[in-house]
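User: Is it possible to get a 3D structure for a protein together with its bound compound? The compound here is zinc ion. I've pasted both below.
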Amino acid sequence: MIWNPQYETMPRPQLEKLQLERLQALVARVYEKVPFYRQALQERDLTPESIKSLADLSRLPFTVKQDFRDNYPLGLVAVPMDQVCRVHASSGTTGKPVVAPYTANDLRMWTEVMARSLTCAGMGKDDVMQNAYGYGLFTGGLGFHYGGERVGATVIPTSTGNTKRQLMLLQDLGTTVITCTPSYSLILAEAALEMGVDLRLSKLRLGIMGAEPWSEQMRAEIEAKLPIQAIDIYGLTEVVGPGVSVECPHKCGMHIFEDHFLPEIVDPATGEPLPYGQVGELVITTLTKEALPVIRFRTRDIASLNPEPCECGRTLVRMSRIAGRTDDMLIIRGVNVFPSQIESVLLEVEGVEPHYLIIVDRERHLDDLEIWVEVSEAVFSDEMRKMEALQQKVKQEMEGTLGIGARIKLVEPRSLARTEGKAKRVVDRREL
Ligand code: AMP
Ligand code: ZN
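Assistant: Yes, that's possible. Here is the predicted structure of the complex:
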């Protein structure tokens, strides 16, 4: 089934014509409404009239995560606040989140691309969709929620956590589709085993999973442990949230909804556009967003693009699975965490040194974050009670900034290895 055949199977020449028209209108809009973009365009001697073909896209400046930080909270917004009807947010490179506002049209567009995504993944109106993505500032919960309702499915907004209750509802309400992160699906499988629940006897048949990196091997494991087809879905807050791209049942790459999101692959080092098929950094321009349009956003996600027609009938380009990132962002239990955030917390707490090691592991499918940090000489020789108080303080500050729990281990002064070159701050033991 194809939710919107007009756009999803549009012949590519016609799609490209539409993209060009939308790109021209977008550049005119941000030039007029967003000082940040006007300045960036002027610096390159560009005006909206400079965009004569899609090839001119590569003349436009990039937007990076840092630009969101510099313009925090709402400096990149292109509409007056009274037109903003919802705001989401996701962790940025520092303590400040990336704030993502939506107009009514933006929410309609998002719901549309989510309806397309869920349909593309194989869901329909007769399905019962249990949505175990987090509801709240994170785009996952509400993004899937409205998409599911639009498709006409029965939506169960369980949100994250409470695995026993998830399993109970899954059986009692006849859930057919689970939407959650790939790692959470394995937690569900394991809990079911422990509780003696045989999910093969349930109606579950499909999982629509994303928000974090995963591999083909992990898909195989999920499909072996749960009676589902596991479908990959991709998105990010700066662009819209989930619904940028999704696999069809052929599982041969994620179709990007190119009438709304214009993709490019660039060389991460030089920024030069790379041809189809080559692996590089995914860059996205939003063609229709009103509140937060973005021009050439550097996602830092590594992928390649394939424009060959797909057996499903969609003409939309397919992006490969995300093969990694160009920065050091970690995704821990679905939350973006930058080592720089951890460092900034440590720098503010008296008694600890900015010598630390971040250890990420996956304990029984759940990401685990442990931070080792050296205490100062003075504190170390002090009483136990003070050390404990310090540990609590670091823990609280850390959780306040990161938004997720972390175990803090205080270690002796100078006990962490020093390196001459780039410090090794992160040990990621998770095997995807
Ligand atoms: P957020 O804005 O917090 O939703 O995080 C977006 C980031 O999550 C993306 O830039 C990717 O790094 C990651 N992500 C989302 N979906 C996927 C996916 N299907 N595979 C791999 N990484 C993903
Ligand atoms: Zn397809």
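The longest strand covers residues 352-363. The chain is about 30% helix and 25% strand.
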